[in-house]
Amino acid sequence: MEKPEKLIVDGKRLDGRAPDELRPLKIEAGILKRADGSASVELGANKVLAAVYGPREMHPRHLQQPDTAVLRCRYNMAPFSVDERKRPGPDRRSVEISKVTREALEPVLFLELYPRSAIDVFIEVLQADAGTRTAGITAATVALADAGVPMRDMISSVAVGKIDDTIVLDLTKAEDNWGTTDMPIAMMPRKKLITLLQMDGHFTKEEFEQALDLAFKGCEQIYGAQRQALREKYAIKKGE
Amino acid sequence: MEKPEKLIVDGKRLDGRAPDELRPLKIEAGILKRADGSASVELGANKVLAAVYGPREMHPRHLQQPDTAVLRCRYNMAPFSVDERKRPGPDRRSVEISKVTREALEPVLFLELYPRSAIDVFIEVLQADAGTRTAGITAATVALADAGVPMRDMISSVAVGKIDDTIVLDLTKAEDNWGTTDMPIAMMPRKKLITLLQMDGHFTKEEFEQALDLAFKGCEQIYGAQRQALREKYAIKKGE
Amino acid sequence: MEKPEKLIVDGKRLDGRAPDELRPLKIEAGILKRADGSASVELGANKVLAAVYGPREMHPRHLQQPDTAVLRCRYNMAPFSVDERKRPGPDRRSVEISKVTREALEPVLFLELYPRSAIDVFIEVLQADAGTRTAGITAATVALADAGVPMRDMISSVAVGKIDDTIVLDLTKAEDNWGTTDMPIAMMPRKKLITLLQMDGHFTKEEFEQALDLAFKGCEQIYGAQRQALREKYAIKKGE
Amino acid sequence: MHEIVSSVKRDYIADLARQGKRIDTRTLDQFREISIEVGPVKSAQGSALVKIGKTQVMAGVKVERAEPFADKPDSGMLIVNAELLPLASPTFEPGRPGENAIELARVVDRGIRESDAIDLEKLVIKSGEDVWAVFIDIYVLDHDGNLIDASALAAMAALLNAKPLEDEAWTLPEFPIQKKPVAVTVVKINDRLVVDPCVDEEGVMDARITIATIEDGSICAMQKGGIGCFSREELEQAHELARVKGAELRAKLG
Amino acid sequence: MHEIVSSVKRDYIADLARQGKRIDTRTLDQFREISIEVGPVKSAQGSALVKIGKTQVMAGVKVERAEPFADKPDSGMLIVNAELLPLASPTFEPGRPGENAIELARVVDRGIRESDAIDLEKLVIKSGEDVWAVFIDIYVLDHDGNLIDASALAAMAALLNAKPLEDEAWTLPEFPIQKKPVAVTVVKINDRLVVDPCVDEEGVMDARITIATIEDGSICAMQKGGIGCFSREELEQAHELARVKGAELRAKLG
Amino acid sequence: MHEIVSSVKRDYIADLARQGKRIDTRTLDQFREISIEVGPVKSAQGSALVKIGKTQVMAGVKVERAEPFADKPDSGMLIVNAELLPLASPTFEPGRPGENAIELARVVDRGIRESDAIDLEKLVIKSGEDVWAVFIDIYVLDHDGNLIDASALAAMAALLNAKPLEDEAWTLPEFPIQKKPVAVTVVKINDRLVVDPCVDEEGVMDARITIATIEDGSICAMQKGGIGCFSREELEQAHELARVKGAELRAKLG
What pLDDT was estimated at residue E254? Predict the structure, then answer.
């Protein structure tokens, strides 16, 4: 695909969205049998699964912490999730994303309730189109709730960025590649506290503030969809 | 070496054998000093060593099983055992063969007699000409007996296959490469119970049954040679 | 750089030194804050750091020895320390050097005083010009002293070799590449006991003895510089 | 791959088997419900999501140009990889594929390779220099038993779903699929042969035998697993089960 | 990367922060003494040793010919690697870079890459075939906190120190450096924002945010770390600190 | 590589050494019985099985075409690899070569390389592009001590056994062997120097020195090992032992 001349024409993006518009979003909770909690997120062409195991006994034992559970996160991409087949196994990018994902989720967990335990969060990207780390955090939060892990608040996550000098919500891969700036963000939607923030590209002070505005708005929508997914799961269960 | 027009001419195979004939076979027990038990098998151009250590204390400790010994098998090829030098270390093929070797041997062992222990079987292929996994199992069984590990029965192992639409015993590398089907098999020769079976290629129902007939016959011969090797070792020891 | 016709002209080496002359040597003790002991050695164009941690609790625990401390040494080269960027991580050469370094240092330590402990010696080569393993041992000894680890004697280390049929002290990289023989050596300077000796190239019996003469002389000088570095550190500390 | 089952449940499953019954009311020769979703992943040339009961396996096909093996200059390449994802079972751990994942991949590989399911000779761009390599990545998402059959089915469904590449070197009108091998795994529980084991049944079984067959019922690959053994008669019964059940599975491939 | 601090010290540091004070008498927005030695390593094309207080980080630049990435035929390559050497801290262990070293390298990389600090297009020898790859190796020698800022500063100083290669394919008169990005890390301790944390302060902090800026004060990269969180106001304050302190650091680059 | 010996046996061996005696009745300067079987492995270009007492080491030589090192365009390549197989000793574990295996390979390599035992310049097919790489794989089958001497002897015997390749690019009538280096290891037990230690003697020794010599008795490689030390006089005695015993070993190479 060649770089298009413009990424925004007549106020519309390549896929027809307005700058402040999210891609179609579908969240489902409790989709896996074996996991203690699970969720899937489809955001545009992204397909992401998350599963939670735990709190469970920590292995290997020497990693046990006497006064707290340990949260472990693994973000991983399927070999077929991207255009050129990705070799299986962690690369530097996925190691970093796993780390910031853990740091994005940990602030809402009560790990001190489960000494010597592990809580494992596994995120699998099945199909990728930019925004997989934020979709993964969004899915992981629903999976944690589905697993019954107590939380202070949810974590909702989305990316904002700059393309053609416009601040936009929820970049596609084309927008990420040819745009100027990408800023993934995660926050507690009720307390408005930011638990993940990364950014690369270029922002003036004003643009940064505009981007934060849009991120807050986007996370609000994500939060709504997360709650809806959990309500549906719960309703079905009650109706069973 | 070019593919020959036919693999069987006038009822004889490339190396002059009849379809149901084994290659020259030589088994020796107790050939290594340090191992608790050992054996060598030469089958045609194959040269395989097996050594047994144990029952011994299991390391690392977290792999100990409170109610049973653990059998561990490693099948490995010497870099110089094949035409093109093989890079040292396990590859996917040797990992799979190590697994099926363990599953072929374990049914005759009384692992529950040795809780918290390990029994280690190491198989080294020094020279390879097809049939190394079955030669390895045959050698490992003699090495287990040499180590004094109690067994319900022996395990005898050989491959059968199909070349030029004929079912044959004990394929050479040339026959394996240019033939249709290879079926390694291992069994308890007294109880006629099959503990290893793999196959790739093509068999009709009738061919499969013919192949099993031939495999039973071949394992009978292998079994005789295994017992002979142990008798010789024992006789020498008594005569020493 | 092309190979020069001669490595010694009019009794002088390429860098103007006499055959029995050391390169300019600078040793500093206590240059790192976090390490328990540390030292830097500059020998000609070599820049080497050494740090000591311990005696400290051994991790992982299963490596603890009930009746002695364990000395662990790691020799490592910075990617930018050599002409062609070195890939990070241990290679076979550095594994071997780490081993002989440990064996060179251990004879002067009282490891039995610290059961279940580890003493870790980390050597980093920042800039390399032949002789880095001996410079590393020289630095490590000063770092051990700086850490207050009790020692029977110091260890002083230097290389000798043969270039243009002449036995010389302290080879440069050019001399090592184009010369005949390289012999790194380490010894207790007071007791005259040799704790490291490696050699490759060619020595007659007489040359070997000449080389040992020169090595003893060179180590004497190294020893003087080691003591001076520790005196300076101590004097500064007292004056602080 | 086989998980620990409590001794009470173990005895219960074994007793049921002796009576020809199973914990989920199936007959011994009955599969759970099977669904095949084709093309769920657009970033792959072909993909499929197979569910057998609660077991979920996804397979994706990617095609890349590669240099052929020196001894096979006139053949495309087939590479099968399997990941037992840690989200699929509490017993799966992150890291490089272990012996269970390797065996799974190799058994699926042999079924496809030995039946000539793909006409690899058609995947040559330039003899000895440039061929197409077909990667099949098997992604186990939820492990409720019988991963081999589910994986083989997903792999074959993904191949059948695979679309020609948009690449000027790709000259075939379609993916050159010429056979539909299908794997059926039979396990032995308390001396009874059972198809399509769930994860608890796998925890109880003595041994398993996987038999891959093609359209005419002939065998293209076999693999015994587990620490038990089979008599000759049991093997022959297992083959008959594999032939019959294989035809049922193949029908689902369309 | 964050080390354990005794609970007494933890309380002491937190109390001080609330009063706007620090254990080493600095103000909350004050860096420790900074020194930059350029060119200490002659075997590198460029090198620098940066000290911020007792923290010491060396960076070395090496340049090698390489084949460009298929999707970037007209661009040289930038590879940043960081080693948390075991001599630098009792908590660093030998072995392959862990998540902290990888994050450190990637944050430094993004600051340089996203600001276009190096004009990578000038590093093309032949489009699509042959380009210069710039390796920046970050070597952490002594860890007394704030490794990201020290590493980013060392990397930039090493780049500015880098000399043209003596190689006939190298036709540039000098290294094509066009921007000077600088990273400033702000940590939150007891709800106060603090710059240039020492290692004990890092052990007490709730979270950190690193903001890399260029000459005009605009942002080229950010990275939040730690298991705490930031309010919007705190982020805006942190950006102001990064702008002001970044200008001070940039001035040291000469 | 050195195994734990009970303290009773330790004292016994040390006491014997002081009296000039050994547990197996040898004199201090006496090797165990040595046998060399050449050509046991037909899949190698050259091979040998060396037994020194109960110690068994196999070496295999393989030759492959390769690109030469950039700084040695006119030289073939020598690669020595050693495996301490887990079947050879209860203390050897499966896995990648550890420091003992690496040291063993490198010491054997240096003896061969530094004596110019192989005329590597004759192994060039096309300068800077195409050369022969000689792989020597050392396979330790049974470890009853003195692995270095046995391995060096096996490697040299395998090289002498190596036959010209059947390959059109191989134009030499025979393998270009021009020297026969031989390694002799001398260990120090209770201040006495001892050759050819068995495994129990290695468990008791203070230190070892390996000296590789060529035909004229001059030294081509040395390596001290172990955590003890040597005086200058001991080194000179060890060299004399290595010269005399080396000639005996070399005679066995034929």
Answer: 87
User: What CATH superfamily is the domain C23-233?
Assistant: GHMP Kinase, N-terminal domain (3.30.230.70)
Q: Which residue has the tokens 């002088």?
A: C12
Q: Whole-model pTM above 0.90? A: yes
Domain residue ranges in chain C: 23-233
Query: For residue F254, is pLDDT > 90?
Result: no
Domains and CATH numbers, chain D: 7-253 (3.30.230.70)
Cβ(C222)–Cβ(C158) under 8 Å? yes
Across the interface, whether the CB atoms of F103 and C96 are under 8 A apart is answered: yes
Bridging pattern class, strands F207-213 and C181-188:
unpaired
Q: B80 and F61 in contact by Cβ < 8 A?
A: yes
Which are the contacts of E129, defined by CB distance < 8 A and separation ≥ 6?
E67, E68
Helix (H, G, I), strand (E, B) or coil at A15: coil
Q: Which of F100, F110, F218 lies at the smallest CB-CB distance from C203? A: F218
Q: Give residue A235's pLDDT.
A: 82
Contact E225 A100 (CB under 8 A): yes
Q: Percentage of chain A surpassing pLDDT 70?
A: 98
The CA distance from F117 to F180, in Å, is 6
Sign of CA dihedral E36, E41, E47, E53: negative
Question: Are the beta carbons of B202 and D229 separated by less than 8 Å?
Answer: no
Both tokens of F20, joined, read 């000039």
R_g of chain A computed on alpha carbons: 18
The pLDDT of residue A120 = 98
Dist. CA D73–CA D75, nearest whole Å: 6
Nearest to A71 by CA among A134, A112, A120: A120
pLDDT at residue F197, rounded to an integer: 98
**CA–CA distance, D84 with D147 (Å, rounded to integer):** 10
**Residues 6+ positions from C151 with CB-CB distance below 8 Å:** C108, C109, C110, C141, C144, C145
Compute the C-alpha angle F189/F192/F194, nearest 5°. 75
Q: What is the DSSP string of A26-50?
A: EEEE---SSSSEEEEEEETTEEEEE
Q: Which residues of A172-197 are buried (b: 16+ CB within 10 A; e: fewer)?
A: bbbbbebbbbbbbbbbbbeeebbbbb
Query: C203 with C163: CB under 8 angstroms?
Result: no
Cβ proximity of D142 and D26 under 8 Å: no
By three-state DSSP, how is residue D13 classified? Answer: helix
SS3 content of chain A, % helix, strand, coil (to 5): 35, 35, 35
Q: What is the ipTM of this complex?
A: 0.96
Tell me the two tokens of residue A3.
């770089």
User: Which residues, given as ranges, of chain A have pLDDT below 70?
Assistant: 1, 236-240
- From CA A102, how far away is CA C56, in angstroms rounded? 31
Query: Angle, to 10 degrees, between the axis of helix F232-252 and the axis of helix F147-161?
Result: 40
- CA-based nearest distance D212→chain B, Å: 9
Counting runs of H as helices and runs of E as strands, what totals does chain E give? 5, 10
- Going by the DSSP 8-state scheme, the letter that residue F123 receives in this structure is G
Of B164, B171, B158, whose CA–CA distance to B217 is shortest?
A: B158
* φ, ψ at E22 (rounded to 5°): -140, 160
B21: left (phi over 0), alpha (psi -120 to 50) or beta: beta
CA distance E64 to chain C (A): 8
DSSP string across E19-37 = TT--TTS--TT----EEEE
Residues contacting F233, CB < 8 A, separation 6+: none
Q: What is the pLDDT of residue B158?
A: 98
Q: Residue D128 has which token pair?
A: 């000895």
